[in-house]
Amino acid sequence: MTILPKPAVKPADPRFSAGPTKKRPGWTLEALSDAALGRSHRSALGKAKLKEVIDLTREVLEVPADYRIGIVPASDTGAVEMAMWSMLGPRGVDVAAWENFGNAWITDAESQLPLDDLRIFTADYGRLPNLDQYTGDRDLVFTWNGTTAGVRVPNADFIPADRDGITICDATSAVFAQQMEWDKLDVVTYSWQKNMGGEAAHGMIILSPRAVERLESYTPPWPLPKIFRMTKGGKLNEAIFEGSTINTPSLMAAEDHLDALKWVKSQGGLQFMHDRADTNAKTIWDWVAETGWIANLAEKENERSNTGVCLKIVDPRVQALPKEEQSAFAKQIISMLADEGVAYDFGAYRTAPPGFRIWASGLIEKSDIEALLPWLDYAFSVVAAERF
User: What does the pLDDT read at residue 200?
Assistant: First the structure.
């Protein structure tokens, strides 16, 4: 195979990690200069900072006024499990998953929570399960955007508007890039370190009035750890949703997230982020359509993620290799581009088919993605020439 010419232009920013993702364009440490460092998160200043995060989140994400927003421990994982442990049990439960993190919620539901009436909807990497099986009379746990598969739900049409159950949506790589249909979602969770480039360990939980009613009318039969408790004396602990966090947050990380929220607002708000992600993803998809050795992992066009764009190597010679060697082939490309300072941390998740996951959300510059793609072609030609 002929080795392609080495590209002359590199991305200005080689960070394409799926989380923590890159900071907003122009970010420097100076953005944290107003952080309430060394101050208690219970102080007036500390609480004001956390409340500002909540208020700006409502504004930027266009969250309905009657939904509660809270900052919670342990990133998106903590937020999802807080909801599952606190709310599931009084009805049958459906859990839908099609990739690694969604499968974690299946493990919780099947192996950890003593749920008597449980149905599991699954699909392999690259496709959605049949979500029309959900009828609305049961509770539902699902992932809006499959972070490690690059497959998302195109909309929430499968959720009945007149449902009786509550819906718990892990939206960590969807919010700020994809339209959340709030009227269909009772619990929405995410982390700062996905689409907003934040630092680790902080989760967000957004509750509809129906979710609040469930919390106030149902007491789980199992013990709840402190970090999962959202009620006090049978009523919602409103302080959590005013900035009084359950445990100690990082006020440096909070300042960083405030900076990202303010940047999005200054750029025009949520639609700006949606449009950037769509444009970035389409840049990759158009290249894939013209490139014979690679394909989208998501099989259906309307189910493709515009944040973590997952790709698989489909060159017949690579496909003929054992799975371990396919993975080694992809890793050699990843290593080569890291050594060149072209792209970091863009490998497929370890349980996904061998390939790549290129982060494309609103904080990524289109010019960086455009500069990356010729390097992928070049690296493929080098590795293929060595192996074949």
Answer: 87
Give ∠ CA 192-74-358 in degrees, rounded to 5: 45
Helix H or strand E segment including 164: none
- Give the residue among 49, 41, 96 at the shortest CA–CA distance from 249: 41
State whether residue 63 is helix, strand or coil. Answer: coil
Domains of the chain by start residue, with CATH: 35-266 (3.40.640.10), 270-387 (3.90.1150.10)
Cβ-Cβ contacts under 8 Å for 57 (sequence gap 6 or more):
63, 69, 204, 261
Mean pLDDT of 71-98: 98
Cα of 128 vs its chain's centroid, Å:
16
pLDDT in tens, 194-204: 999 999 899 99
274 vs 104: CA distance, rounded Å = 27
CA 307 – CA 310 distance, rounded (Å):
9
Scored b (16 or more CB within 10 A) or e, 117-153 reads ebeebebebbbbbebeebeeebbbbbbbbbbbbbbbb
